[in-house]
Design brief:
Blueprint (H helix, E strand, L loop, with lengths): L4 H12 L6 H8 L15 H22 L3 E5 L8 E4 L1 H7 L1
């Protein structure tokens, strides 16, 4: 599997963790677009749109890692916290 930069970044961060992690907690480390100022109406704001698109892309990258068995859920979401994941052996091979 050819990894996108976001997928590879997520895998590296997940793989370097000694404990299972919540994927969404890692997104701030990987975001390249500045967090825009929140206004009453951000619709049409190119800075806001670029940031929002990057957030969606990170969620998509995370889902693809799971669908391709590069990460696994070790503690399903409980209503109090999100899924906690860890890298699989296949995920380690993918970033080696």
């Amino acid at each position: 599997m050819n990894l996108t930069d976001q997928q590879a970044g997520l895998l590296r961060v997940i793989g370097s963790s000694t404990e299972p992690v919540a994927r969404s907690d890692l997104f701030p480390r990987l975001v390249t677009k500045p967090v825009p100022e929140i206004k009453d109406d951000n619709e049409g704001d190119p800075v806001w749109n670029a940031w929002a698109e990057e957030q969606i892309d990170l969620h998509r990258a995370s889902a693809e890692l799971w669908k391709n068995d590069l990460i696994r859920v070790v503690h399903p979401a409980s209503g109090e916290r999100p899924d906690l994941v860890e890298i699989t052996d296949a995920g380690r091979v993918a970033i080696a």
